[in-house]
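[agent] plan:
  1. take the single chain provided in the ticket
  2. run structure prediction with default settings
  3. attach structure tokens to the ticket
  4. add a short note for the reviewer (M.T.)
[agent] executing step 1
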Amino acid sequence: MRTPSSSHLANLDLNLLVSLRELLRERNVTRAAARVGVTQPAASAALSRLRRHFDDELLTRHNGSYVLTPLAAQLAEQVEGVCAAAERLFGTGRQFDPATTRRGFTLLLADYTIAVLGTALSSALAVRAPGVELRLRLVRESFTADIAETSRLIDGVVAPPSPRFDRPDLRSVELFRDRWVLLLDAAHPAADDELTPAVLAALPWVVPFAPDRGFSTAVPMTRELARLGIEPDTRVRVESYLGVPHLVAGTDRVALVQERLAREVAPRLGLVVRECPASERAPAAAEIRERFWWHADLDGDPAHRWLRELLVELGAGV
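[agent] step 2 finished; step 3 output follows
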């Protein structure tokens, strides 16, 4: 006997999920129809059914184009996860051929990780799995707060270890290592001085993903600031790692930046890279260990296993 919830699900046309995803992605009925592989009238009919189901317009006309309604904006994020989970569910147990698959993979990661691995990953997929659709979602604190729920809806997260990942249902493998360095403008008055923790504490800072008050254990650089005994005088907050060097250049601000990123952009932006100082708490900066995290439910998925092995291979080549 079906429960009320399963009965409700059985009465739904789950093909509408794919139509919903493409309509919200494209915000255009004709393009969504081409993505799904149906006629434009069929896509219009699907939109009408979705509007009746949700009792919402979903797409509304504005200045000659479609925009998402507030409800549609909420659904856009949810439907991506649901479709990704369905793809994994129905792909489990089947043989996986990367050369012919149309599988989609969704990863959550920081823009810094894209700078380090993005080119190699995109190139490898283009050659080895040209039919794969790669969806990269940038880290946001509100999105990553519930990692248990998030990990069930996507294929994995690339991030350093933190307390939020200490769960028995999560697996991980190391991809590559980096370390924190200091970044200052070349004309900064302290650019050639000894940068002790006391000197750094007196300077204005650029801090990515900084909370409005105090520190967040979810921010990877928190541990390095704690090692230095610094509560930074944060003048600029930005939800990006790649944006940090641009906000340091031409100012008297200082920032902690991953060394791979710092060495790449410093010459172009007129910045200097300095070692983090020793402190009473620890003699040197800790390594940044970027890992790939996934839910244990994906262990037996051959497509996911292939993705994990590819990421490890690419990380080893960094």
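[agent] step 4 note for reviewer: The longest strand covers residues 170-185.
[agent] ticket updated
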